[in-house]
Design goal:
Blueprint: H1 4-15, H2 17-23, H3 27-33, E1 46-52, E2 55-61, E3 69-73, H4 87-94, E4 99-103, H5 115-129, E5 137-142, H6 144-158, E6 166-170, H7 182-185, H8 196-207, E7 230-235, H9 241-253, E8 258-263, H10 278-303
Parallel strand pairs: 3-4, 3-5, 5-6, 6-7, 7-8
Antiparallel strand pairs: 1-2, 2-4
Helix pairs in contact: 5-6
Amino acid sequence: MASWQAYVASWILKRGLKPRLRAARDIFESRRLLKPPPYRVPRDVRIAAREFGGVRGEWLECGSGNGLVLLYLHGGGYFACSPETHRPITAGFARQGFRVFAPDYRLAPEHHFPAAVDDAVAVYRGVLAEHIQASDVVVAGESAGGGLALALMVASRDAGVPLPAAAALFSPWTDLAGTGESLRANARRCAMFAGGPGIQQAAGAYLNGADPCHPLASPLYADLRGLPPLLIHVGKNEVLLDDSVRLADRARASGVRVELKVWTAVPHAWQLAQSTIPEARQSLQEAGAFLQQVAAHHASSNAR
């Protein structure tokens, strides 16, 4: 049963942010609307500027850690947000013992596809260049960041680079062609987006004429064989629901272990509201446990 906080948050977004996004004049106004209020980082979380592969970002730690590096790729439709806006999530993972790096990858419309993918790949290669084993690295991201996490793994696999141990994807945007039925079926129910038009505006700003079905832009169409275990969380009422459901089906058909959970009543990217929505804290905790469990199993298997 969903919490009352999830219902209230969805109600507020549906009547506040959603119509403003729908009425936004251009991508820059949408970018301003998607910037959340400042987040007070817990005192036990340390944040430092750092760079991997020539890409700047934020490094977050808390306590002694669990030995895993978590590469977190923020969402925002490839045109908005930053590591700072996503501190509720990255700090949440840091408090579970992960050493978290959130890259400030290039955004549209100033930088088009595949700039974000190139930056994500450069960061991952930079992490490995620090003599950190791929088995000690996990990846996570929400919305566009979830799609970017998949693109990172597909590109790395194709280049012969060892893959991270596991990935957690929150409402990943995997189909920039916008073919999912939930774009229409959930247009009224979704707390944040009104369906296809807004999604396509963001896709157009990022793609700049590139093929929306390119596997590194829309990993739903990629060859998913050989990817590490995936955890996928998505809201039942989201317009991006089918981006997750179809991804899970295609990944399983390719032999990838997938755990898909569809949540009731929560808004898109509800993990950002972990200070107010119980399901946000639960999602982050479940994702952290999954990543640690899979990484530990991977390390145990390699030691045999």
